[in-house]
Amino acid sequence: MKIAIQGIKGSYHHIVAENYFGSTINLVECMTFAEMPDRVLSQEVDYAVMAIENSIAGAILPNYALIDEADLTIVGEYYLEINHNLMGLDGQRIQDIKKVYSHPMALLQCRSFFKNYPAIKLIEDVDTADVAKRIQENQLKKVGAIASAKAAEIYGLTIIADGIQTIKKNFTRFVIVQRKQSLNNKESTKASLKFVLKHQSGSLGDVLITLANHKVNLSKIQSLPIIDKPWEYAFFADLVFEDYEEYKNAIADIKSKVSSLKILGEYKDNK
């Protein structure tokens, strides 16, 4: 089975891919999220693992747009507790480190730790694990990476400080996507959808009331501007439910209250 991930071996996407599919998978590494839909659509991979939101930083809205535009289907989700670690070459101490590279999100989540080390310059990079790999390959002294413990293990680095994220309970939600699939999974307890409201007062309230009447819980909702329609917005929402038929009835009722509706996926709630 071939799985596309953002980043390289040792990244958090790699950890999720192995936890979800098992360790015998073949990884296809993508340095950007934008590459991933093409890998799925071309059938180069069977599935892609894509981060979609973080408990601290919120939704990664561009990834919702990528899934929608490529007409991919969400078939699963996985929540991973994120533990950031500062690492470097063997023998390096934190007093030796002058620069730390990592993904912008990782840097953001660890800023409080580095307030105690003002001499260290924080520099954005494309992937947490890729920085760890470069440090080892190029024997970069005085340079640190923020990455997973798995990255330190794979690339032979020493963890200088562990669990350096500001908020210790830090989770990222990842979705599993594949080429467009028919939707009729009666084992599902969660769904992701996109809808555009009609131009009338109270239209969003009508949608929320309809969901409540069918005992469907709205677990998350985000708005995203519609590029070619100024001041108009699409809504991406996650629904949680116990009764699949009641959820389908809710969807049928909502269709009459919105100008468009698209189901991005139906799957098991894995929270």
Describe this structure in words.
The chain is an alpha/beta fold and 271 residues long. It has nine helices and 15 strands. The protein has helices at residues 12-21, 35-41, 61-69, 104-109, 111-114, 128-137, 149-155, 203-213, 244-255, and strands at 2-6, 26-30, 47-54, 58-59, 73-81, 85-88, 99-102, 121-124, 143-147, 158-161, 171-178, 190-197, 217-225, 233-240, 258-267. The strands form three sheets. Strands 1, 2, 3, 4, 5 and 11 form a six-stranded mixed sheet that branches. The chain has a five-stranded mixed sheet with strand order 8-7-9-6-10. It has a four-stranded antiparallel sheet with strand order 13-14-12-15, sandwiched between helices.
What is the averaged pLDDT score?
94
Alpha-carbon Rg, integer: 21 Å
Q: Tally the helices: what do you get? A: 9
Strand portion, in percent?
25-35%
Gross morphology is: elongated
Q: What series of H and E elements makes up the topology?
A: EHEHEEHEEEHHEHEHEEEHEEHE
Low-confidence stretches are: none
Spatial gap, N to C terminus: 25 Å
State the share of residues found in helices, binned by percent: 25-40%
Biggest β-sheet description: 6 strands, mixed
Number of strands: 15
Structural class: alpha/beta
